[in-house]
Amino acid sequence: PAPPDTLDVRDLTVVYGRSVHALQDVSLQVPAGGIVALLGANGAGKSTLLRAVSGTLPMHGGAVAGGTIAFGDTPLTGRAPADVVAAGVVQVPEGRRVFSGLSVEDNLKAGRLGVRNRGRADARAAAEQIYALFPVLAERRRQAAGLLSGGEQQMLAMGRALMARPRLLLLDEPSLGLAPQITARIARIVRQIHEQGTGVLVVEQNAALALELADHACVLDVGRVRLEGPAAELSRSDEVRRLYLGEQ
Ligand code: ATP
């Protein structure tokens, strides 16, 4: 049997339309409770990989053309988003996409929509844990999400995902558009989530941040794995330093 709570992506190929090979034979594992970073330039296929796992590839034209995805013993290849959430894998989408007209509280409740058979007491307990992790959300629980700052919206999107009590969180560009100070705060929270036992697969343009956060990293280059290894090792690699850390 497969190790529990381990994400296992094997030989994944995703094609958009007939000709855009967004991913080709990509394999990647996230061990139970580990943090893995996915790096790469624009268009390398990072979001496509997360969307293939979470079952949210665009309906028109995004298709898994080959390979398998499993979480522990549960096959996820081609499954609907609700099934993936039920298996314990939840994505925080890029661009955050909070419901701006709804209150912070109702946004968190929306994170329970895909959750089956766990009841109200568990939802309340999950919300309290999230408010403890993000005190600013507790202060603003009755405010419309659209009034939050960018960093606070990122926290809300992460909180909403945590409402489902994932075993693995898929984070797409958590630092996008945020000031360095806010980014550092988000990074601390990601670490806390990891310390509480949740696995994290994080896509980041900010390679320095990603390598600092992760145990293991994988660099995608036009749809293929170009490099992978322990994050500390990749931080020392000449290629990574030159291409992704902006060093000469
Ligand atoms: P970014 O950091 O810019 O989001 P990325 O590494 O996440 O980049 P993807 O968004 O996964 O990359 O895109 C991989 C490739 O697939 C790119 O060539 C992109 O143009 C193409 N692509 C992405 N979404 C679609 C789509 N819905 N239809 C057609 N092609 C797409």
From TrEMBL:
InterPro entries: AAA+_ATPase (IPR003593), ABC_transporter-like_ATP-bd (IPR003439), ABC_transporter-like_CS (IPR017871), BCAA_Transport_ATP-bd_LivF (IPR052156), P-loop_NTPase (IPR027417). Transmembrane segments: none annotated. Keywords: Amino-acid transport, ATP-binding, Nucleotide-binding, Transport. Residues 7-247 form the ABC transporter domain. SMART domains: AAA (SM00382). Pfam families: ABC_tran. It comes from the Bacteria. GO terms for molecular function: ATP binding. PROSITE patterns: ABC_TRANSPORTER_1, ABC_TRANSPORTER_2. PANTHER family: HIGH-AFFINITY BRANCHED-CHAIN AMINO ACID TRANSPORT ATP-BINDING PROTEIN LIVF. Belongs to the ABC transporter superfamily. This is ABC transporter ATP-binding protein. It comes from Kitasatospora paranensis.
